[in-house]
Amino acid sequence: QLQLVESGGGLVQAGGSLRLSCAPSGRTFRSYAMGWFRQAPGKEREFVAGISGRGLSTYYADSVKGRFTIARDNAPNSVRLQMSGLKPEDTAVYYCAAAQTQTVFTTEARVDYWGQGTQVTVSS
Length: 124
Known about the structure:
The structure is a single chain. The chain is an all-beta fold and 124 residues long. The chain has strands at residues 4-7, 10-13, 18-24, 33-39, 46-51, 58-60, 68-74, 77-83, 92-99, 113-114, 118-123. Strands 2, 4, 5, 6, 9, 10 and 11 form a seven-stranded mixed β-sheet that branches. A hairpin with a 6-residue loop joins strand 5 and strand 6. It is globular, with a radius of gyration of 13 Å. 33% of the residues are buried.
């Protein structure tokens, strides 16, 4: 079992920055690739960024490439999403996700565990 707890969401003006954190529990954290997804009002949940189990590979949605950075620490366990150059269209609930694989994942079908979500609101 893996429990994921997100933090760091909030309200920010367009062009600003926020950092989201996800604190997974469990001793087998390195066995999981991690990712961030988001869901805007009235839209389906979508992939944002992913990182492999050892942190050597990352992948980003085109909409956030160059603005967001995903990183992980395996001691203590954490995965972060640094967001800069935020736009109103980045407004969404952001979810931390874990998949029991070493490779980067980009689809919900691969997710084994979800966090509860944290709200990010970008004002224009």
